[in-house]
Amino acid sequence: MTTNRLEAFSDGVLAIIITIMVLDLKVPIGDDLMSLKPYLPKFIYYLFSFIYVGIYWNNHHHLFQAIKRVNGAILWGNLHLLFWLSLLPVSTAWMGENFHSAWPVAFYGFILLMSSIAFMIIEKVAVKTEGKESIIGKSVSKNIKELSSSIGYILGIIVSFFKPEIGIVIYYLIALIWLIPDRRIEKVIE
Fold first, then answer.
1. Which of 20, 26, 38, 61 is the most exposed place for a label (fewest CB within 10 A)?
2. How far is 94 from 87, CA to CA, in rounded Å?
């Protein structure tokens, strides 16, 4: 099977995730700039979750440029990733309301960690399916960025129970690292 249907379905789910997140933002009461102040934390967390969805969309696109065929394991791996990403709107809203509390911040980090692991599972299954000498096999042989991100998420979760604000900073530092696109696949394709 080709990757077309999987990519189209994934794009649709990611678009819905962003839509659900933006629908959680409420219209400010009042007509001056100060009316925005109470909504600022939720908007900031929406912005960063939007960036995370964008990072996954970008890397998902690159990943499936290197994968030539899809099997059941890759389909289920992709659904596993979409499941965790679909929880971002809930975790974003909860953290946006309670950003000084340990459990919402830790839960947000847990969703990011599980999304990261799910993405790595897709990579592993794809390499197993297509072989180590395939484009995908050569592209993802070194996954230092993914592993360091997962370790960072675990650290952020743990720190969240002591100082939630630092946990949030860790999650967003990881996002900044991923704003620089992962060019491993592009390099191998070129």
1. 26
2. 11
